[in-house]
Design a protein that fits this description.
Layout: E1 11-12, E2 20-21, E3 23-30, E4 39-40, E5 45-52, E6 56-67, E7 74-79, H1 89-92, E8 104-105, E9 111-113, E10 117-124, E11 132-141
Parallel strand pairs: 3-4
Antiparallel strand pairs: 1-2, 3-11, 5-10, 6-8, 6-9, 6-11, 7-10
């Protein structure tokens, strides 16, 4: 067995033999079906925002509110098991638009998915009729070994 070394920038080492590149997916979520929105969250419901394959490691989730959401709307980001696993509504602050460059990130939450699943956003409290946010999901594919 050889000594494991610190990975290069942008690599994740899930095993001794196979480094995996770290990637980020950007998803735009909005209350309206406007150009650019990847997900339209216009109801009190849970919406799939990213399909995660087997052996993916979600390293972190970051958000920025571009346009404030309707008053009383709460938003959480999680997976099919825990709707607020990555970010609770208090951290997202859906009624507060944020200047470019300021992101809210998940605090020390990462997860290795042994089965495929979806990362979700859940809207509650009120029907979203306004608002837009961007979500960055940082992940790596761990592979099998």
């Amino acid at each position: 067995m050889s000594l494991k070394s610190i990975p290069y920038i942008g690599e994740f080492l899930p095993s001794y033999e196979y480094p995996a590149p770290v990637r980020a997916a950007r998803i735009l979520v909005g209350a309206l079906a406007t150009v650019g929105n990847d997900v339209v969250a216009n109801a009190i419901a849970t919406f799939n925002i990213l399909t995660v394959p087997v052996n993916a490691v979600v390293i972190s989730v970051h958000t920025r509110i571009i346009t404030a959401f309707t008053a009383a709307v709460t938003l959480t980001i999680g997976d099919g098991v825990a709707p607020a696993l990555y970010l609770a509504s208090a951290a997202i602050a859906p009624q507060t638009a944020v200047a470019t460059g300021s992101l809210v990130g998940s605090a020390n939450v990462s997860k290795h998915y042994l089965a495929g699943t979806n990362i979700t956003i859940t809207a509650a409290g009120a029907v979203p009729t306004a608002g837009q946010m961007e979500i960055f999901i940082v992940y790596a594919l761990a592979g099998n070994d």
